[in-house]
Design goal:
138 residues, 3 helices, 41% strand, globular
């Protein structure tokens, strides 16, 4: 039998939005994650470049894998992205997330999105672990 998936793997396996876009989880560890996405024709906007929402989604997914690596369910409290260079149809993008700090139930994570060695976007996410409850909600 295979090993039980860790929290980040389990969360990513259930992420239909990211998997439906072809995002792949390449590597993950405590507070880190690396994901890959190939820009498809459906992801290109009216200017002929990758829509920023797809770049944000890729970075946000890497952030989610990194901040959920510790175990408790963790969600985004907020995030910002800076678009540094355009991406184009056919580009293979890699998002690398790393934990900067955790304090209490909160954390700060940075994600670099690159095409080869070129930075496409820089993302900073703020996380919050969700308290477990003893009462199940409907």
């Amino acid at each position: 039998m295979g090993a039980t998936p860790g929290p980040a793997e389990a969360m990513f396996a259930a992420d239909q939005a990211s998997k439906g876009l072809g995002i792949e989880l390449l590597e993950h560890g405590e507070g880190t994650a690396e994901l890959r996405l190939t820009v498809t024709p459906a992801m290109v906007n009216g200017h002929g470049i990758a829509h920023g929402g797809y770049l944000f989604l890729l970075a946000d997914t890497a952030f989610a894998c990194a901040c959920n690596s510790h175990g408790p369910v963790t969600v985004a409290a907020g995030a910002d992205i800076d678009f540094v260079a355009p991406a184009h149809e056919g580009d293979v993008l890699v998002a690398t997330a790393r934990e900067r700090t955790r304090f209490g139930r909160s954390g700060i994570y940075d994600v670099s999105v690159k095409r080869g060695g070129e930075v496409i976007a820089e993302f900073r996410g703020r996380s919050r672990s969700v308290r477990s409850t003893t009462t199940e909600e409907p």
